[in-house]
Amino acid sequence: MASDSHLAYETLKHRILAGQYKPGTQLKEEPLADAFGISRTPVRAALRRLVEDGLAVAESGRGVHVAAWTEWDIEEVFQLRLRLEPFCAQLAAERRSDDALATLMQSNEQMAKAIKAGGAGMADATQAANRVFHHTLLEASGSHRLQSILATMIDMPIVIRSFHLYSRDEMQQSLSHHQDLTLAVQDRDGALAHDIMQLHLSMTRRRLMKARAAGTQ
């Protein structure tokens, strides 16, 4: 049952993050269990994990729905990231392995390639490289507490879909921050990595809020 629950959780999480389930969509146990070919018990456990992650909400009498995002939800996520992720970057710079550094460099190359290629797939490819970059820093920090707190925030649907709002110049700016962060990590300069990450997240927050105010999100 544990493996069934994990599979259901990962599948539902992927669909939510990919935008296949829109905010407010009800996640019903029985149809999902039938679709996955499993009992309702592991589906119920998977839905409970989604609620704990903030990807879904459970309301008495209304069941479980995909979470919608208010201005406060977005602000809360970014304020938490601004307080924790710079420290994560600092630890990553001080503790990183050669393999982690190589992965950061590779993700930068992939991001640069996606931006240069442009086209309809640019946002998704850039976001994928961005996700690898941030999760690599998170793992390189060596802090299980930070990993458990930040992993879900980095994967929030509102953050992932935000790449579809950015211009090529804005994506290039984000890449420049990643490249500067990589240099700080390479030099094991924790203080510099901390400050660059703080700037990076502040600019990301500003771009997203500006786009929402313009009615594009």
Structure description:
With 217 residues, this protein is mainly alpha-helical. The chain folds into 2 domains: 4-66, Orthogonal Bundle (Arc Repressor Mutant, subunit A), CATH 1.10.10.10; 71-216, GntR ligand-binding domain-like (Four Helix Bundle (Hemerythrin (Met), subunit A), Up-down Bundle), CATH 1.20.120. Helices cover 74% and strands 4% of the residues. It contains 10 helices and 2 strands; from the N terminus they run αααββααααααα. The protein has helices at residues 2-17, 29-36, 40-53, 71-95, 98-117, 122-140, 144-154, 157-161, 168-186, 190-213; strands at residues 56-59, 63-66. A two-stranded antiparallel sheet has the order 1-2. Strand 1 (56-59) and strand 2 form a beta hairpin. Helix 9 (168-186) packs antiparallel against helix 10. The longest helix is centred in the middle third of the chain and has 25 residues, at 71-95. It is globular, with a radius of gyration of 18 Å. It starts with a helix and ends with a helix. This is GntR family transcriptional regulator. Residues 2-69 form the HTH gntR-type domain. GO terms for molecular function: DNA binding; DNA-binding transcription factor activity. InterPro entries: GntR_C, TF_FadR/GntR_C, Tscrpt_reg_HTH_GntR, WH-like_DNA-bd_sf, WH_DNA-bd_sf. It comes from Bordetella genomosp. 9.
